[in-house]
Amino acid sequence: MKLELFMASRLVRGVQKGGVASSVVRIAVVAVALSVCVMIVAISVIVGFRNEIMDKVVGFGSCINIINRESAVNLESLPIDARQDFYPSITEEDGIRHIQRYALKPCIFKSGSDIMGVMLKGVGEEYDWSFFDNNMIGGHTLNVQDTVSGNRIVVSKKMADLLNLEVGGSVLAYFIQDPPRMRKYTIVGIYSTGLEDCDKMFALVDIAGVQKINGWNENQITGFEVMIDDIEDLDMMTEVVRGVAGYRIADDGSMFRVANVRENNRQLFDWITLTEMNVWVIIAIMVFVAFVNMSTALLIIIFEKASMIGLMKAIGARNWQIRKVFIFQSLYILLKGLIIGNLIAFAIIALQYYTGIISLDAESYYVDHVPCVLNVWHFAIVDLGTLVLMTIMMTLPSLAIGLMQPAKVMGFK
Q1: Which H or E run includes 391?
Q2: What are the DSSP calls for 276-295, one per residue?
Q3: pLDDT for 311-335, tens place per residue?
Q4: CB of 83 within 8 A of CB of 90?
Q5: What sign for the dihedral angle of Cα 127, 128, 134, 139?
Q6: Which of 48, 51, 109, 268 is most open to solvent, judged by the fewest CB atoms within 10 Å of its CB?
């Protein structure tokens, strides 16, 4: 092994001094660097997209919902009783972080001559405001414990722009029911998440006001929202919640429906899955490009050193020993390309992560900039996978050494 490494190091120095192989090696290094860079950046961006969108969808609707089964096919939500034996004791289950009540009521906002259909989401004093705290662009969130919170509302920037609303102003809400009702809300906060489908739909109010408009008592709600510790355990925790709360019939004969955020937003998550498939296509193309360039470089080096190979065979070197010399040399090219590619990828991801310099249309992509994840494991996985795969693949062009006959190649130049 030491002999092969020594000869490979001498070959590297010889190639660096010039010749056709020198230019080809530089091209191969650049190809590997660009391929590795593209793979790392692609993984970082796709994981960033998935995490960003998941956080926003979960922020609006939680990880898991418990509602009346009939509400899934009705525009108006049907109530369930908040006095359940799993509320709030379900948080004692491992992996479940929080549970909160909510109530929904569709209405029409009117401001001047402008109108807009909106879904009021009533929340209780236990509501987790952390998501909206991070996305407020004006005013503040609701203090549901406040005795005057019943006529206060948090709206989205989308609503504010369409209806010319501002913090401290007011908006009229009309409820289509029998008899029709109207209520005036004072705007205390404006949020913007970039998730357009939700931004243009949900406004947040005190749950007591929604219950009163719906004609419900204080124990009737639309459902429960359950938050879990790790979104990667979503499917498993959904089954846990179903086991605790899903398989039961209420006193009024209604049944509960337990569904997670992925089941409630299938179209959005199908889109994410499609983008993840694109990453695999990109990775396959980049590996192929790197393999072609590496193979070309290795073959040129082999033919350029044909006389040396013939000499080594003449003095008794076996084919596998000679092949190892050139495979070690290809490893040098590969490692150099990996280092350069990692540095370029790190610079691109860090720049986008900290500055968000590349922007996007939020209505089309759900985020206003390209999201990136700066994760050392992405670098490690790509580097290790490329190193192992390319080393195995480099055995193919090295088979050309076995076809060379000493008598024919010792004088080859």
Answers
A1: helix 376-393
A2: HHHHHHHHHHHHHHHHHHHH
A3: 666 666 666 666 777 777 778 888 8
A4: no
A5: positive
A6: 51
